[in-house]
Amino acid sequence: MGEAAAVKLEETQKTQIDPETAERFIAEKRIGERIKRLRLKKSMGLVELGKHTGLSASFLSQLETGRVVPTLRNLSRIAMVFSKDLSYFFETEPNALFRIHRRRERVRLPQTGVAAPTYFFESLGYMVPDRHMDPYFAEFVPLTKEMEPRAHMHPGFEFLYLLDGELEIHHGDQTCTLEDGDAIYFDASTPHSYQCAGKKPANAIIVTMHQAPSPHPIPMRVASQTTRVESQAPKAAPTSIVR
């Protein structure tokens, strides 16, 4: 091959899509996984999907596992079965949320607002943005003379599962003692506090769930013209005590 021909071949190769790059592009779309997800969502087997599309079950299996690449004709058959547009198989999918919090990476923090904390906690979800719940690992230490349990409250709900030890919980006017394996779920907008009820520390998993907004606004009652309306000063909202 002459030098001019070699240069021309090199230039041609630079302007062509590399087959390996094309295969990687197709693989990133995860077309097979999307087909399988649609099929399982409809509780449909490969044989049944094959009857609707005219494609064999073995071929569909190879499609789902990525061993073969579908033609647009075959992909359109599958799309029509699930009432999807062809673009469904090529749109960018949002990354599924998946976060690991290693024990060595967590930070142990004391109860805030007191000189002698009655418990320490570690966030188990600090790396998750815009989270809808806050999970914690908490250690409640045995009380000493200088310790005094402090009540707090916050919007939403709270779930606590006691891993070991004994824990006394005050919620409004109610008091209960939990033992290892016990769990409790309560309205966190009511003042509540915890204290270790044994001689050894009590460990628990706590999950606080944020208050969901009301799906529908509460309609205001309009007073009739014959009704006398008295203006009242709005009541101050309760101040949340920081955990």
Mind explaining what this structure looks like?
By secondary structure, the chain is an alpha+beta fold. It folds into two domains: about 70 residues, lambda repressor-like DNA-binding domains (434 Repressor (Amino-terminal Domain), Orthogonal Bundle); about 110 residues, Sandwich (Jelly Rolls), CATH 2.60.120.10. Strands 1-2-3-9-4-7 form a six-stranded antiparallel β-sheet, with no helix packed on it. β5 and β6 form a beta hairpin. It is elongated, with a radius of gyration of 31 Å. The N and C termini lie far apart (about 80 Å).
**Tally of discrete structural domains:** 2
Order of helices and strands: HHHHHHEEEEEEEEE
What percentage of residues falls in helices of 4 or more residues? 25-40%
- Please state how the strands of the largest beta sheet are arranged side by side: 1-2-3-9-4-7
| Poorly predicted ranges | 216-243
Q: Do you know the CATH topology of the largest domain? A: Jelly Rolls
Treating each run of at least 4 consecutive H or I residues as one helix, how many helices? 6
Shape: elongated
For the secondary structure, the number of strands is 9
Mean pLDDT: 81
State the CATH class of the largest domain: Mainly Beta
